[in-house]
Specification:
single chain, 529 residues, alpha/beta, Amidase signature (AS) enzymes, 12-stranded mixed beta sheet, 36% helix, ligase, Amidase_CS, Amidase_dom, chloroplast
């Protein structure tokens, strides 16, 4: 058997530089700031009202939504909830940490007061009688759910083209995909239709769209956030994650939704640290704020099959980390390429079990039939999309008696090997880095009829889910397309329950990344005013 981690190699990346865009030719744009903290300060000082703030975002959503199609449902009580926050401010009542923050919620996360369809026609018009634990915690902190965001059906896809309702566009180039399956949540934050959003990540569904849309995407450790109320795809891999326009916002949102939940036996009882304590203003940083941090660049993620411009951007990110005081080495995880087939066997197997409940009787839209088997078959055939059907069939096959050992059991063995590879690499390094995807956002329709090519795009992210580790993706530069520059994200991975470390490194990285503006052209002029 190959060693899990080969001998690291010290790297020097001075010849690589990050390719960034300037908002104005004469002045560099300021680093990303926390919308959550800025808004809280403005509300408490009464510089702005919650109603005016909500109105601004709703107007922007109405203006951009015909182009983007990020949302499947927009709440009709946003202004009413904003009025309640203004009342509390007027009467000097205590405000929660997310007071007035407008949050988009992926459509597979249950909300009691609006539809939750998981992007599938079989759950059309379904309104759950409860909030997911993560949603309930946000609401207790004062957040306002602005609406439900579009997604690939049941989370099965990498482009958001697999939605049963509509195709979401990328705010940077409307002819391109926003990624998936949480493409609606990523596009909504990128276009500033909401301040932050929730997504779910089974094999990269938060991190890949974050890279494609130029926003921050945070996948927590498995068990950090309760899965209660998350429509199940692959239960041993699913996690609820966060999107924000800054690392600080993603961290603040994660803090609000984290913690043990009696309704989810897999949720951790570990104490949730104050992630905001890691955020230091750029003016207070010394010249080498990350001195002594050991960073491992995963060799397999910068080899053949990865766009050369992506490799250049990631090497530029490594160079920036070196400038901040990090020691960057190249590490090899020989089991890395094995993760992709193992992931698809395991995820498909779990989905074939989880989705059996959508039969038109227990859950799902029912089709009239004279005979029970016909009712089952016709309800599922009419309600489920082609990608979902294909993955159910793949999973059922892998779990069948004659093939269980050859496929499912072997995939579980590979999963153990992947975990050991990461454990060994993280014993020698504080964090690991890699691209979040092997390319920038591609054209709508480009890979819809080539599922193997689409699946291969998940190779950078699925191993993290197999190992149950946390990962942070944040914008690090741009690549040129034929018409517009497209954002690229760097993925940072740490040991389990070390989100605090990732947020600290990520925050310093983005605060010191000079000359980059990650505001898409669709809304750049409005936000510059």
């Amino acid at each position: 058997m190959l060693s899990s981690v080969q001998t690291p190699r010290l790297l020097r990346f001075q010849s690589f530089s990050l390719k960034c865009l300037h908002t104005h030719p004469t002045t560099a744009p300021p680093p990303p700031h926390s919308q959550i903290l800025t808004i809280r300060k403005s509300l408490l000082s009464r510089e702005i009202s919650a109603v005016d703030l909500a109105g601004t975002f709703l107007n922007r959503l109405r203006n951009t939504e015909p182009h983007l199609k990020s949302f499947l449902y927009v709440s009709d009580v946003v202004l009413k909830e904003a009025e309640e926050i203004d009342r509390k401010i007027a009467e000097n009542e205590e405000l929660g940490p997310l007071a007035g923050v407008l949050v988009g919620v992926k459509d597979n996360i249950c909300t009691s007061d609006m539809p939750s369809t998981a992007g599938s026609k079989i759950l059309e018009n379904y309104r759950p009688p409860f909030d997911a634990t993560a949603v309930g915690k946000m609401k207790k902190c004062g957040a306002i759910v602005i609406g439900k965001t579009n997604m690939d059906e049941f989370g099965m896809g990498s482009t958001t083209e697999g939605s049963g309702y509509q195709v979401t566009a990328n705010p940077w180039d409307l002819s391109r995909v926003p990624g998936g399956s949480s493409g609606g949540s990523a596009a909504a934050v990128s276009a500033r239709q909401c301040m932050v959003s929730l997504g779910s990540d089974t094999g990269g569904s938060v991190r890949q769209p974050a890279s494609f849309c130029g926003v921050v995407g945070l996948k927590p450790t498995y068990g950090r956030v309760s899965r209660y109320g998350l429509v199940a795809y692959a239960s041993s891999l699913d996690v609820i994650g966060c999107f924000g326009s800054s690392v600080a916002d993603a961290g603040i949102l994660l803090h609000a939704i984290s913690g043990h939940d009696k309704f989810d036996a897999t949720s951790s009882k570990k104490e949730v640290p104050d992630f905001a304590s890691q955020f230091t203003a750029r003016d207070h940083l010394d010249s080498k704020p990350l001195k002594g941090l050991r960073v491992g660049l995963i060799r397999e993620t910068i080899e053949d099959g990865v766009d050369p411009d992506i490799i250049s951007s990631i090497r530029g990110a490594a160079s920036h980390l070196e400038e901040l005081g990090c020691t960057v080495t190249e590490v090899s995880l020989p089991s890395f390429s094995l993760g992709l087939p193992a992931y698809y066997i395991l995820a498909s197997s779990e989905s074939s079990s989880n989705l059996s409940r959508y039969d038109g009787i227990r859950y799902g839209k029912q089709v009239f039939a004279d005979e029970l088997n016909s009712l089952y078959g016709e309800s599922r055939a009419g309600g489920l999309g082609s990608e979902v059907k294909m993955r159910i069939l793949m999973g059922t096959y892998a779990l069948s008696a004659g093939y269980y050992d050859a496929y499912y059991k072997r995939a579980q063995q590979v999963r153990t090997l992947v975990r050991e590879s990461f454990r060994a690499a993280l014993d020698e390094n504080d964090i690991l880095i890699s691209p979040a995807a092997p390319s920038a956002a591609y054209k709508i329709g480009e890979k819809k009829n080539d599922p193997l090519s689409m699946y291969a795009g998940d190779i950078m992210t699925v191993n993290v889910n197999l190992a149950g580790l946390p990962a942070l993706v944040l914008p690090c530069g741009f690549v040129d397309s034929s018409s517009v520059a497209l954002p690229v994200g760097v993925q940072m991975i740490s040991a389990a329950f070390e989100e605090e470390k990732l947020l600290k490194v990520g925050h310093i990285f983005e605060q010191t990344l000079h000359g980059c503006s990650f505001i898409p052209p669709l809304v750049a002029d409005e936000l510059a005013c």
